[in-house]
Design brief:
mainly alpha
């Protein structure tokens, strides 16, 4: 699993230590839940692609 605390530190995020530990713990649990699902996706599957469009005036 990823070391979320080191990732945050490497990105220079200024998050208080207690909050960072809490966030890292939550991210670790989410990663553990999704990892088995990821293994079931065929390699050939196309990734989702989203395009966000801001309406122009008059639309």
């Amino acid at each position: 699993m990823k070391d979320w605390v080191r990732i945050a530190e490497g990105l220079g995020l200024e998050i208080p230590e207690a909050e960072l530990e809490r966030a890292a713990s939550s991210l670790g649990r989410v990663e553990a839940l999704f990892r088995p699902l990821l293994e079931k996706i065929p390699f050939e599957a196309e990734p989702a692609f989203l395009v966000m469009h801001e309406p122009e005036e008059g639309e």
